[in-house]
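Sat 14:20. Reprocessing the chain from the morning session after the first attempt stalled halfway. Input below, unchanged.
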Amino acid sequence: MVISISLGRLKLEDMQPKYERLTDDQWEVIKQFVNWQRKRKLDLRDIFDAIFFVVRTGIQWRNLKETNFPHWQAVYYYFDKWKKDGTWRKINVVLNQLERLQKDRESLPSLGLADSQSIKLVPPFFEARGVDGNKKVNGRKRHVLVDVLGRIYACHVHAANFHDSPQGVHLLDHCLDFGDRLETIMADQSYKGTFCKAVEQCEMNFETPQRLEGTKGFVVEAKRWVVERTFAWLNFFRRLVVDYERTPKSAETFLYLANISICLWRIDFSAL
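Finished this time. Tokens:
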């Protein structure tokens, strides 16, 4: 079975077909990011499993009580704790590097691809809400910076009524995750101006895809389709189909969690 999207084809086998708990090999890598210096009543492996269950199925935190996972307040406590101390971002960077190495690439990329996506925000929440006039979306806008494999290295979420260029600058706050190899960032015309200048101030090159002469209508742009495919992958995670988060920071965290889940599915941990 093949799922067709606007750019190329997205094979179903490219994604984990359903939620599954962490395997022993996966847990051996993940548990290295946890502080084991104090005793806990809860099994942190169950906590991780519950959080990945939330991002994949879109279940509400409070409805976790209907499952076999720990109490929802305990699960949310660790989600929020690891969000604030940067644990999720650390896991994300390491797994990105592991997958690149298994693909016979350098551990860190030299090219970054940036793009944004406007997404509806559920009615109860009004923090960082706006209307994207071009796409007629009342909600928020997601910016992501990915490598050529489509792995998310940086993201930024804000009200949808702000322009891409000045808000995209926040992606550069995480460029240290790319190391010293990042040389070029490619993005569309909407990132020219403030974002372009900020990239150049970081001593990197800014490029926009060049349209071939004589082409009309919709054309798949070289390399830029990678980031569009990343947005398509995010649709496999029900928590991300609509923005259900009270704060933009939580929305960003779920983007990292989705990317972590993809890496966990793709990496052959038995070969590590």
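Residues 1-10 have pLDDT under 50 and may be disordered.
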